[in-house]
Amino acid sequence: MEQADIKQIIRMAGGATALAKRLGIKSPSVHSWQKVPPARVLAVAEITGIPAWEIRSDLYPTPAEYASCVITNGSEA
């Protein structure tokens, strides 16, 4: 699955200024993003409604990928 484009993410949040305000940061920070920083992914997902795995597929597995991992006693089987 492809990651959501940063421009699409910002647009879904109502623009860089609106997103920055909701995150409690300055808009130039948002404008400088090439990708959503790891520490901001969950907040941005909540604000935009875009799932975390679409924002940063390199950090968050899709539900199908997650379900295919079998965890036993804290380690993968």
From TrEMBL:
Domain of life: Bacteria
Gene3D superfamilies found in the cross-reference section: lambda repressor-like DNA-binding domains
UniProt-listed SUPFAM superfamilies: lambda repressor-like DNA-binding domains
Name of a matching Pfam family: YdaS_toxin
Species the sequence originates in: Acetobacter malorum
Protein name, UniProt field: CI repressor
Gene Ontology MF terms: DNA binding
